[in-house]
Specification:
alpha+beta; two-stranded antiparallel sheet; elongated
Length: 51
């Protein structure tokens, strides 16, 4: 798998965003860092405890 193929798969899954900047591309996460942390804590709070 090439890097471009991997990037295209992430784009299809909306795991990353894409912005064209002149002749190059800028890739970015679809959510901010703060939103990512909040979502992770919510999933943790809703998960069943492991014993």
């Amino acid at each position: 798998m090439t890097a471009r193929t991997f990037i295209n798969r992430l784009l299809k899954k909306n795991a990353i965003g894409l912005e064209k900047a002149g002749r190059s591309y800028r890739y970015y996460p679809p959510v901010s860092g703060q939103e990512r942390v909040r979502a992770k804590f919510e999933r943790l709070a809703l998960s069943k405890p492991r014993i």
